[in-house]
Amino acid sequence: MSALKITTFQAYLFWENIEKNLKNLALRLSGIREKTDLIVLPEMFNTGFSMNTVELAEEMNGLTMQWMLQQAKRFESVVTGSLIIKEKNKYYNRLIWMRPDGTFEKYDKRHLFGIGKEDDFYTAGKDKLIVELNGWKICPVICYDLRFPVWLRNKDPEYDLLLIVANWPERRSLHWRTLIPARAVENLSFVVGVNRVGHDGNEIYHSGDSMCIDPNGKTVYYKPNDEDLYTFSISKDEVVKARRLFPFLKDADNFKILD
């Protein structure tokens, strides 16, 4: 079965400075020394987790979208992460799945972080995204979505890898470190979570804790506190084996989410 090579960048982000972040990220990605299938950046990788939508939002043909395409072509891999997008006078925390040929998919964050007033500034998405890469079905989501297992429930199953990009604060890192393995075990899938590090413009500290957990809840990769550019491979055989030995997904409740 096919393997998937993933490069995660647990990055320090410069607060609300798009050009500086894009320049720094491009420089740091130069540390990738081997062919990779997927490069994963944190939530709002070009600004930090900001509510300054009017000043920072970009159109879908903006600078950061062009930068993502440049990096996808440069490394001949998919590049993903989220940014602030303005569309039809609404603002979205939008994940982009950028391919080297310039085609892309998008996912608008479903669950907006009310404690941080995100729902006052952004419009929530309604549709789940499932993408395919090298024979893998992948479900990319954003940060706070991690807390909502019904939204992430792996029906049928829909995906082999759940991917979470985040700006998750250190003060709730225990939740992050608990929920990611839980999502892996309950959905019989790999889960990769990519967070940022350092203080943001609100003096909130982020400890990273980016990780990859296999379908049995075992840790493939984990990194706290420091910036880290890391490439690793995961095997589809592990998903197939886990589902064969413990096929509980077929016994799961059937349901629909009603908006």
Describe this structure in words.
- The chain has 259 residues and is α/β, with parallel strands linked by helices.
- The protein is 24% helix and 31% strand.
- The protein contains 7 helices and 13 strands.
- The strands form 2 sheets. Strands 6, 7, 8, 9, 10, 11 and 12 form a 7-stranded mixed β-sheet that branches.
What percent of residues are in strands? Answer: 25-35%
Q: List the helices and strands in order.
A: EHEHHEEEHEEHEHEEEEEH
Give me the Rg, rounded. Answer: 17 Å
Query: What value does the average pLDDT take?
Result: 97
How many angstroms separate the termini?
Answer: 37 Å
Specify the biggest β-sheet: 7 strands, mixed
Helix content: 10-25%
Low-confidence parts: none
- Strand segment count: 13
Helix count, per DSSP?
Answer: 7
Q: By helix and strand content, what is the structural category? A: alpha/beta
Q: Any idea what the shape is?
A: globular
Brief summary of the model shown:
This protein has 259 residues and is of the alpha/beta class. Helix content is 24%, strand content 31%. It has seven helices and 13 strands.
Topology:
Blueprint: E1 3-10, H1 18-29, E2 38-40, H2 53-56, H3 63-75, E3 78-87, E4 90-98, E5 104-108, H4 118-121, E6 131-133, E7 136-142, H5 149-152, E8 161-165, H6 173-187, E9 190-194, E10 197-199, E11 205-213, E12 219-224, E13 228-235, H7 236-245
Parallel strand pairs: 1-2, 2-3, 7-8, 8-9
Antiparallel strand pairs: 1-13, 3-4, 4-5, 6-7, 9-11, 10-11, 11-12
